Predict the structure.
Amino acid sequence: MTEAERLLDVDDLRVSFRTEEGVLQAVDSVSFHVDRGEVLAIVGESGSGKTVTGMSLMGLTRSPNARFEGTARLGETELIGASDNDLRKIRGKQIAMIFQDPMTALNPVQRIGDQIVEQIRAHEHVHKAQALDRAVQLMERVGVPRAAERLRSYPHEFSGGMRQRVMIAMALSCSPELLIADEPTTALDVTIQAQILRELDELRRETNAGVILVTHDLGVVAEIADRVAVMYGGRIVEQGTLDELFYDPQHPYTWGLLGSITRIDRDRPGRLPAIAGLPPSLLNAPAGCHFRPRCPHEFDKCTEKPLLEVRDPAKPGHCDRCWLGLEDKRRLRDIGDGEIGLATKEVVA
């Protein structure tokens, strides 16, 4: 990609919150970029820092007890240091977000049409009638039947899948350059999931917008992503193209995620594979590699903090945070019959 195609550049982002129990480091030294027309998936367990990363780019995690370090540039605009007034102009216009739960993200006492119109008129000087016409077009575009009629409905009158379509329509109402989709298919049945993903992919291709897809579902990632960043304990532990992450993963946590997926081309196991142990407390994270307490392959050097670096010169875009050598990784991730996974480890609570 040329520099002109670069849309977002995040460098060494750190987000922490002061609590009564101490400082919680929610995001720790996170760096990534998104190009125009590209989908970057950020995956990981709940509590890994995915959502905080996305919301921090929009300034939605700002509070008196929050501290931010690092940079995040959207074109020529610095997001982390931007004022609240500047961010209000950016949200919805340059960056839009599809929130995880549309029922709580939408105003329950305001009609759907009024909510979409309000966002359009907040950023553009248009008459209400024009904004309503555009709202109808957006609702039709994302597959809401009888769009003109449904604009007068309230959020509780829509199903979960239709509310998610409304969120997508609202996010796209001002043609944003960057779309952050936070678990856009959570709690939806697989048929609706597939429809939502197709719509996101088509809209991304039509508008050439960059997309950050926040999810824990690797099936969703395989469907739509171009590149993948794997987060654990507030850090990105591996980053690369979709094929690199699925066919040549380098970090043991990624092996565990891939190994936890049920394979339909193999006999059903007696017990579903799982990563032993629990995610670390970000109030008191382990020294060195955050995954060390759960990793069956830890050794002495793992008590030192590994950097997110390119380990294989043949793959300059593939980075990870693991001290194991390349050959050791390829040997240890094979749990039999060429299947990638994480060896079992008994973790004492």
Observations:
- Residues 190-207 form the longest helix (18 residues).
- The mean pLDDT is 90.
- The longest strand covers residues 6-19.
- The radius of gyration is 21 Å.
